Amino acid sequence: MNGWVGYITNQSVINMQTTTLSSDTHSGHKRERRKEARPGELLDAALSLFVNKGFSATKVEDVAASAGVSKGTLFLYFSSKEDLFKAVIRANLADHFPAWNQEFEEFEGSTPDMLEYAMVSWWQRIGSTDASGITKLVMSEAHNFPEVVEFYDQEVIRPGHELFKRILQRGIDRGEFAPFDTELAVHSLVSAILYVNMWKHSLACSVSKNALNPEAFLRNHVHLMVQGWRQR
Amino acid sequence: MNGWVGYITNQSVINMQTTTLSSDTHSGHKRERRKEARPGELLDAALSLFVNKGFSATKVEDVAASAGVSKGTLFLYFSSKEDLFKAVIRANLADHFPAWNQEFEEFEGSTPDMLEYAMVSWWQRIGSTDASGITKLVMSEAHNFPEVVEFYDQEVIRPGHELFKRILQRGIDRGEFAPFDTELAVHSLVSAILYVNMWKHSLACSVSKNALNPEAFLRNHVHLMVQGWRQR
Amino acid sequence: MNGWVGYITNQSVINMQTTTLSSDTHSGHKRERRKEARPGELLDAALSLFVNKGFSATKVEDVAASAGVSKGTLFLYFSSKEDLFKAVIRANLADHFPAWNQEFEEFEGSTPDMLEYAMVSWWQRIGSTDASGITKLVMSEAHNFPEVVEFYDQEVIRPGHELFKRILQRGIDRGEFAPFDTELAVHSLVSAILYVNMWKHSLACSVSKNALNPEAFLRNHVHLMVQGWRQR
Amino acid sequence: MNGWVGYITNQSVINMQTTTLSSDTHSGHKRERRKEARPGELLDAALSLFVNKGFSATKVEDVAASAGVSKGTLFLYFSSKEDLFKAVIRANLADHFPAWNQEFEEFEGSTPDMLEYAMVSWWQRIGSTDASGITKLVMSEAHNFPEVVEFYDQEVIRPGHELFKRILQRGIDRGEFAPFDTELAVHSLVSAILYVNMWKHSLACSVSKNALNPEAFLRNHVHLMVQGWRQR
DNA sequence: GATGAATGAGTGTTCATTCAT
DNA sequence: AATGAATGAACACTCATTCAT
Q1: What is the pLDDT of residue D33?
Q2: Cα–Cα dist B201/B136, whole Å
Q3: In whole angstroms, what is the distance from residue B223 CA to residue B216 CA?
């Protein structure tokens, strides 16, 4: 409960309060009409509950209540619980890719720096927030919701894979790396991200020692990879 | 928690690979089946079903039927479905480490070869069998069974971590690697194992493209790491 | 229970046959639609939907949408879905009898011809239109709306019964039929009408073979009856 | 509430008490094991509730409670509410046809007597009992359960139709009737049965006057038909 | 010990109705 | 008058667990 675990815990508290605050905001009125704001409020509530309790273990009624609306209202904006899950994935992961793709097209430093920046950015923007729990959710409940897994594959895994592949290819094209199998190499990069994810969401709650400092681990992992790819 | 549990644990490796056979066995000799064999048959059936269908999606009735007994009988040996889960994990996990520890103490080749051998051995003995599904199960259901996660941490994660750390230290001591932070490095190795695990048990069913060749990936991952650690 | 209700009742025959037209009408002139026309449009839409989809299966929102208004507006005119049901039945039933009574008082042919004409007319004017569905609705939902059934009995069943009884009595008085129990005989005539009704609205959709030609059946039924009643 | 209506009412009371008695029988013990008796008890309860409250309006829990068991037990014997409906149809209508077919093959009197016997038998064995309500149920809820309608068509309508057709053909073959279209004629016979059915289950509750004496009506109806078919 | 009939708590989704705007 | 966002009651079906036999 110290080191990075504490760090994460602090983050979660903040995130959770963000949600709680928003529901306090409109707890004054009943039947308040907030058509524009509802979907976002519901998505926030759903992310928090899904990540902290699991998808199946979360009742739609709890999501609705947490967003300050009734069960029926949720179905006004999302056709089903699974649809809500997809929307959570879209809002918290998939929708970031356009910006990320652009960001890396405009990146001007060396490719090794770019890789480190990518990994650390992921941690700061996603890994350290509730959004990282989505990946664990998808893995955990994959068996029961194949459609969601397919969605996640198309909207998150592939775009992410492609993004990393382009970065590695840039390194080869610029002569920073010797040519190698970028396909396999991407898996090695992604494995570190998945590792941090699973550590945080599956083990951190129970495992106290062997604590992992995510940022240090990611930097180290990239450095190792980069050394392996460098031209000699 | 003694007697049959020990018995089962001893035969767990065999059971894991002969689930089908064992169920054939007792369909032939109806009354020859010894009472002491029941729990083992139930654990085998449970492992197979939990891994292939998921924990929640597996009905206790299916486990009982698959073991050739009635639903009521299962509850004679395991007080609840959760208890059965714990027993499955206990029976199929920890006991490999003594053998592995000894095996690597006697290893005589180079440390890079040793690392590659470790990874490929894991794949051949565990990763490619149902046993690898346990890790995924633990991750998926971690929220609901913190006690199990702790057990998994002590009996599997730490011994594995220590084993890898000793191997890396051997490489440094023998002058094959330049000195580095072995703690962080181990995570980078384990991340590859976890990656293969999750890929196989969470995504393989739904994700068609970007298919992963586990053995090639593991070899490549080790090579990359090794290059990074080598003395220059 | 006055004003627009009376208005609607007057135009019910027209409405029944021009549901589509009337909805086209108000899509052209957006604001020209008079408020007084609303209830009629709602009743038309309700008749069509109730008959074609069933009462329970019809959503009030669909009725409203079909009439070109919002859900809330429907409840401005009808206090509940049940109230709408009653209004539909009231608006589409009773008013045919004065005309029919007069028509048959002026009929100059033989009584057997008159009976055949009555049955075939019913088919052509009612049976083959949506209006016939009301009878099925009343039968189906009788349990839930006893008040409506009573209304239907007084306004439809009895006038119809009396009309047929007078026709049969005419046949006896004119010496075309031997004297018989006209009360019972009327039931035999009406049974054919009900039969066609139920066939059309309850079974036709699912039952393929044994198809029924309503007009042939009705003619045949009357001929049989008439032969039984004829003087020898 | 007098005449035949009273007669029917008496019948229903008897029927209802049959059901009630059976549930009293095993109300002493909890968790009584009555595997053989359960389906029959559930079918009786279901018939009574479906007929008196309607299919959709009846909750499976009510059926179970009325049979003295829990909700779960019902699903041990019937896979769904719709399946229960079909079983009710089978047990109370469809299963009678073998006996009826045989009975009429062995009938030795004249065909007109046979027809009268058939109609009166129907009234005494089916029409006057709760079983007659099934037909009304199927008609009423046809829209929502097409599969049930199809089942009813195959298991009840067609066998009944064929039975009547064979009887009429027997009359023609024996020279009692002049040749005629038996297909159309059957509809005229069945219409009387349907009429009694709908009268009893849709109108009787609300309509007091114009009371119908079912047995007299059916006899009269048959006599009329027969006169029309006789050879001259 | 073994059985399997019986239990009953738990939940996503629909839709008639309300009411703030 | 008209809207349409919000409500919440209602319900079939599953399955881990119990217990009479």
Answers
A1: 74
A2: 7
A3: 11
Measured CA D82 to C1' F4 distance, in angstroms: 36
CB count, 10 Å around CB of D155?
A: 17
Mean pLDDT, all residues of chain A? 84
pLDDT in tens, D68-125: 999 999 999 999 999 999 999 999 999 999 999 999 999 999 999 999 999 999 999 9
Instruction: Place B43 in a pLDDT band, splitting at 50, 70 and 90.
Output: very high
Query: Between the ranges A8-17, A46-55, B204-213, C99-108, where is the mean pLDDT highest?
Result: A46-55
- A147 Cβ contacts chain E strand, under 7 Å: no
Residues 68-127 of A with CB under 7 A from strand E: 71-72, 75, 79-82
Mean pLDDT (whole number) for C156-170: 93
Q: Beta-strand (E) ranges in chain B?
A: none
Report H helices in chain C: 4-10, 12-17, 19-28, 38-53, 60-66, 71-77, 81-92, 97-105, 111-122, 132-140, 146-152, 158-173, 182-198, 214-229
Is residue B121 within 8 Å of residue B219, measured between CB atoms? no
pTM: 0.82
When pLDDT is averaged across residues C148-159 and rounded to a whole number, the result is: 87
* Tokens coding A78: 């999302």
Residues 9-68 of C with CB under 8 A from D: 53-54, 56-57
Question: How many Å from the CA of C195 to C1' of E18?
Answer: 42
Under 8 Å between Cβ of A70 and A60: no
Question: CB C144 to CB D225 under 8 A?
Answer: no
